Amino acid sequence: MSIDDAGSLVAFDTTTEYYTVPVSGKCVLTCYVAEVRSFKVLWQKIDRPIVNGNQTNVQEQLTLIAFDGIVYSNKDHYRLESDYVGSYNLIIDRVNEDDQGEYQCQINTEPRKTKKIFLTVQVPPRIVDFRPNPPLHSIRSGSSLTLSCRAEGTPMPQIRWRIRDVDMNQGNLLPPDNSNIWFIPSISNTFPRTVECIADNAVLPASNRIFTINVEYPPIIIINNDLIPTEQYQNVTIECHALSRPFARIIWEKNGKMIEKNKMSNTRVNQTMITSRLTIQMNNNDDFGQYNCIAENIHGRMEAFVLVLQESMQGIQNEKNHRYSKHYSSKLHTITHSTILTTTNIYIERDIHISSSSYRLWTTNILLYLLFLFQFSTIHR
Q1: What is the pTM of this model?
Q2: Which positions carry the signal peptide feature in this UniProt record (predicted)?
C-alpha cells in the first residue's frame, strides 16, 4: 500500500472551529486523528501582521508549537494532552493577548490534512496612556476644554461619559455615546466638578478614568441684607458671601479705610464659597454708615456695600407709642365694647389729665361752699 493510499485511510476532522476565551483563562484546542498509523501530528500557529486594526494575509509567520508529541515552543503555557486514543489536543494555560490568532493541527499525509482553529482572546477594556491629558484640570471660566478618553481591548470597548456630581440635571452637556473626545467650547463656573469616562466591552472589569475640573472665576458677592437699622451702643454683625475659585480674599472698608482684621471672621462654607462676618460696636455716630465688602482673587475683584443706619428717636418714640396705644385701646374696648380700637398716647394722657383736673375743681368748690355755710351760721347765732 502506498503512502497516498495509507493517508486516505486516516480519519481526520478538518472542520474549522472558533474559540473565544478570556485573558488569563484556560483553552483546549481539540484535534482528533483516528488510525494515525505512521504519520505524525503537528501543531503550528499562523501569525499575521495587523494593519489599521485588521489582520492581513501578507507576510504571515509560521511558528512551530509541537511535533510528534513533543512541544518545541519556548512558551511554557503550551502543552499537549491525549486523554483518549486519537486525541492530540493543545492546551494553553493562562491565555494572554499574544495567543490570539490562527492555529493549525496537521497530519503529514500526502497531501497534508489540516484543521484550522481561530482563537479570540477577550481582553477587558484598558484606557491608554492619558499623560498628555491629565485627569486634573484648572481652567478659567469661558475657556474651551477638550477631554480625551481612548481605550483598547478585545472586543473594542465602547466609550461613554458620566457626570459624577449629585446634580444630574446637566446630562445634556454629555457628548454622544462612543465618543472618545469631549469638547466644551466655553466652560462655565457651574460646570460639574467631576466627570467620568467609562470604557466597556462586556468583559469584566470595565475601565474608567475620572477627571476633576476646577473652573476658576473672579469673585461673585452675595449680600443677603444690605440695609440694617440699629440703635446706638448696640452690637451689629453684617455678612458678606463670596463665590469664587480660587478662594477670594475678603476685606472690609469704611470711608476708604480698611477695617482691622480682629473685627471680622472668615469661614469657608464649601469648595467655592467663603463667608465674612464683621462685628461693629455702635458707640459713635461715625460707626453708622456704609461698609464696603471687597472680594478679590487672581482673576478679578468685586465690591458690594451694606448700610447700617441709626433708628431716629422720633421713630423709636412712635414705635413705643404705637405699642402703648394698642395695649390701652384693647383695655378700653373691653370696658366699653367700643368698635374704635386705635388711639394715641397723647390723646389718652390728655383725657386722664382733663378728668383729674375737673375732679379736683369740683372737690374744691364743694369745700369752699361748706366753709361758707359754716361761717354764715356762726355769725347768725
Answers
A1: 0.63
A2: none
